[in-house]
Amino acid sequence: MSNAAILPATARAPAAQPSGVAAAPPIIEVRGVSKVYGDVVALKSIDLVFETGKMTSLLGPSGCGKTTLLKIVAGLLKPNQGEVLVHGRPVTGPGPERAFVFQDFALMPWATVLRNAAFGLEMQGRPRAEREDKARHYIAEVGLAGFEDKYPHELSGGMRQRVGLARALAVDADVLLMDEPFSAVDEQTRRKFQEDLIRLREVENKTFLFVTHSIEEAVYVSDRIIMLSPRPGRVSQIIEPDIPRGDDPEAIRRDPVYLDTVDEIWHGLKHYVE
Ligand SMILES: Nc1ncnc2c1ncn2[C@@H]1O[C@H](COP(=O)(O)OP(=O)(O)OP(=O)(O)O)[C@@H](O)[C@H]1O
Description:
With 274 residues, the protein is α/β, with parallel strands linked by helices. The protein folds into two domains: 1-10 and 26-97 and 174-274, P-loop containing nucleotide triphosphate hydrolases (Rossmann fold, 3-Layer(aba) Sandwich); 106-172. It is built from nine helices and eleven strands. It has helices at 66-74, 113-117, 119-123, 128-141, 157-170, 187-204, 215-221, 249-254, 256-269; strands at residues 5-8, 28-37, 40-50, 55-59, 81-86, 89-90, 98-101, 175-179, 207-211, 224-228, 235-240. α4 packs across α5. The longest helix is centred in the last third of the chain and has 18 residues, at 187-204. It binds adenosine-5'-triphosphate (ATP). Adenosine-5'-triphosphate is lined by residues 37, 40, 42, 62-68, 213, 231. One of its GO terms (molecular function) is ATP binding. This is NitT/TauT family transport system ATP-binding protein. InterPro entries: AAA+_ATPase (IPR003593), ABC_transporter-like_ATP-bd (IPR003439), ABC_transporter-like_CS (IPR017871), ABC_transporter_ATP-bind (IPR050166), P-loop_NTPase (IPR027417). It comes from Aurantimonas endophytica. Belongs to the ABC transporter superfamily.
């Protein structure tokens, strides 16, 4: 048994605080959310809370409703039952405090890296100088300084992905929602990006919620892994891998807690794979 805290699905409320210490309110609350598409029950009675500054991944068998849940939090889909609160306010659609990083990065092929990264700010009607300053800052932050004037077709998949992330960071949303952000790139790029994501989370103090199919990836980057059961998707388990994420990103992959947690999740999931 590893040091990962494996919590039953019912253990969703934030831990009680010692007396005198104010509990930080959760940034996102998902309350009794169910979603059906025609006859397909995609999600059933999902209750979750997300704390500020944490990285959470959604993991589970194909079709269990991971993307559906992410889109409901983003305000791109409405639940049939239940509600999502962000900063205590009900979500009725997309909002500036949540940025969505799409699987295909949703870049505009006719616009430069700078314009693509500044696109969210352009939509918000910010002045050009301000949006370009911010976009340049985040382009550098994601390792693309010098590529501001390039077009998406001149970039590798990994670089395009970074532009998508720079765009999401530039709007200064509190919550970054990512739908399999690493799926379209090669393994080396993916690993580098996972390392960068851990670093970014520390620098930026954002709340990240992302969907992945990769057990290794979920355990590598996440403070918390929410396991969904096969359709209808319910929360089956919440895992909090207690892995030190210090200066050496390679050390994480050798950490016994990392290795044991990957193994435990795989044993739990493998009977769903034909
Ligand atoms: N627009 C839609 N219309 C009908 N059914 C849908 C729609 N979107 C999703 N579904 C169904 O709802 C279920 C959950 O889909 P969802 O994409 O959320 O799952 P997922 O866990 O993200 O899947 P995957 O791991 O394969 O990407 C699936 O059975 C899917 O076929």
